[in-house]
Amino acid sequence: MPVKIPDDLPAAEILESENIFIMSETRAKNQDIRPMKVLILNLMPNKIETETQLLRLLGNTPLQVDVDLLRIHDKSSKHTSIEHMNNFYRDFDDIRHKNYDGLMITGAPLGLLPFEEVSYWAHICDIIDWSQKHVTSVLFLCWAAHAALYHLYGLHRQVLDKKRSGVYLHQRTLQHYPLLRGFDDEFFAPHSRHAEMDLNELKAHSELNVLTESKDAGAYMVLSTDNRNLFVMGHPEYQKVTLDEEYKRDVLEGIDPEQPQNYYRDNDPTQEPIARWYGHGSLLISNWLNYYVYQLTPYDLNKISDITPSEHDKA
């Protein structure tokens, strides 16, 4: 949360130069406060596991967040009961007329399938287009990040020879962004995917900024220049055992996967995994929700479409 200080306090200039977020008394007095409205489009097969992971991260912020869960279709799910889906998830037609402060779109196990061959591709494109006018900020995770970069900017992913799985060291490519406040110079983050975006193409695109990257795993956090769309190529929401469960599942299915890198103690899959991304995963979501949602969204959600790129830049 921001630190509120008197308008003319000399420390203000120093704190701002150190990338510490402060709020003047004048701005604080004029702020209207209400719960943040966040929509989660859950594309993962195990809905309950993924929704729990994301809600855990959202729950780490002191902001009050009201969440709606969205499904891409009303077909039965192999890993989630129809009762759960009908009780807790909404269809897009039910919320199409609404506005939200934030939208999170999860990854999906579709890494080897061309986007146009995905059964709900037209539907996901419809939701992405809708979000650009009805949501203050959108967070795309893993497959959803690739899909959105392709749909919005025409950028193509590259299918990898081997699945990218493990916990990788990252560096900040750009320094002074609110999204990176509190980040160490180097930090770890998990990846689990079959494809990768070309780092040079992302850096060359005039409407995108690569904020963090890994020499082994490529781009991790990419932000649109209007700050409306955040693309995260990995899985900050993963729990300690998630990569282990994926690896052992693939072994049982005879896929012959490579073991997740930098994950097991002594790189030995018979030993326990080491979780070393929780802090930065939580910080990523907290910074996104604070600086790119809470600080920018209008009190009246009906005015979201009135937000201009210059207002987004104030983050």
TrEMBL record:
Where along this sequence does the record place binding of substrate? 163, 192, 249
Q: Which UniProt key words apply to this protein? A: Acyltransferase, Amino-acid biosynthesis, Cytoplasm, Methionine biosynthesis, Transferase
The terms under GO molecular function for this entry are: homoserine O-succinyltransferase activity
Q: Which reaction does it catalyse?
A: L-homoserine + succinyl-CoA = O-succinyl-L-homoserine + CoA
UniProt-annotated catalytic positions: 142 (acyl-thioester intermediate), 235 (proton acceptor), 237
- What is the recorded function of this protein according to its Swiss-Prot or TrEMBL entry? Transfers a succinyl group from succinyl-CoA to L-homoserine, forming succinyl-L-homoserine.
What protein am I looking at?
Homoserine O-succinyltransferase
Species for this entry: Shewanella surugensis
Q: Which gene encodes it?
A: metA
